[in-house]
Amino acid sequence: MNTPIVADSFVSLAALGGLIVLIGVIRSLNATSPLNRRFLFGLQVLAALMASRVLAWWTDLYIFKAATIITAGLVPLATVLLAEGLLRRHAPRTTKWIAAGGAITFFALAFLPAAIAEPWRVALLFVYQLVTFALAGHMTVTRDRASLSKAENQAIDRIALSLLLILPLLVTDFRSVYIDQPVRLGGVAILFLCWLLISLGQRAVGHRDTVVSFVILLSVALLAAIVIGVENRLEPAALVRAGSVILSAALLGVIWKDSISLRMEQRRQSLIRHLAEDSIDDTLGFLKELQKHPLVDGALLIGEDELSELDLPVIKALFAARPLLRASEVDSLSQADAEQLAWLLEKYEATHVMLVSNHPFRLTALNMPSVSATPGAEIELKVVQRMAVLISERTPRHD
Hints:
Elements: H1 3-30, H2 34-59, H3 62-87, H4 93-109, H5 114-117, H6 120-141, H7 150-171, H8 186-199, H9 207-232, H10 236-268, H11 270-277, H12 283-290, E1 300-302, H13 312-321, E2 324-326, H14 335-347, E3 352-357, E4 362-366, H15 375-394
Antiparallel strand pairs: 1-4, 2-3, 3-4
Helix pairs in contact: 1-2, 1-8, 1-10, 2-3, 3-4, 3-6, 4-6, 6-7, 7-8, 8-10, 9-10
């Protein structure tokens, strides 16, 4: 078995996995916006490139080799289209002609036999990609920052930063008889790009944080490769392959973890979305809509009739003083209050009970153990509780 091909395949498949995760994240946010459609086109082209070249290496089939050339020729066009979307302006006419003309040219050249087309086809592809990336980079550097929002400028800066780190790695994808390259690192570059793009959804993460994290990951991967190399007496080329495989696996793991964090953030914000979008005409309607949200799925509305077994004056006084109570707070209450709350929690298998209306008196029981680990969700729950009480007070009563 060809060892370099194994390492190349792993790095490319890891990049394919990172692209699939990122595509899923963008689609979950808003796949219909013009900018996201351009993002998705570029990511899908890269995913097709990674898949086709791995299939070409392992099957040696003509169709996959042609697909590799075609998708590689589409990458510069996708880059220019994305740059136009980010900058909200058209690329210069010359840049458009080069990007579109190159994509069409390599679609035609992809079907030439390798005996005729190589090595000049690969050399021409390298020049085409380098020139187009340079033109797209010039567009971003010379942009009018004042015409774009802070978030747009941040996204462009982060992508431009990624290109500075990615371009040297992409060069290794072009094989040369003069330089013996141990492994293709274009997949590592794509993984880093996926990581940067996912980090755009994490507003608290800055450029410096991402670069420092990448340096730490790179250092750990190199250290691990050195340890493996010393243990197994590997040659330098094998060390580089081991390091690239370890780094690719680590980056894919980080991308997956960050995608989960983004999905959890979306879920956590569902209560805020409920406050902003759902009906606030009456308390019952508000609470019924609240029950549909994943964060408080299965919330139970408890009226005075369901509380007949309890000391209702004690319950009312307890929730007047503390409108939101958790299971963890039972021990901090007086014996009488603790008994009442423990009965409520046990009967309704709840972790939280909150006051949602004074007239008539109503409580809501929630089973939400994850809230204890998410302070932000706890605050949102308090906002919902206060909003429910305010709605009940503004709703006319019919006695």
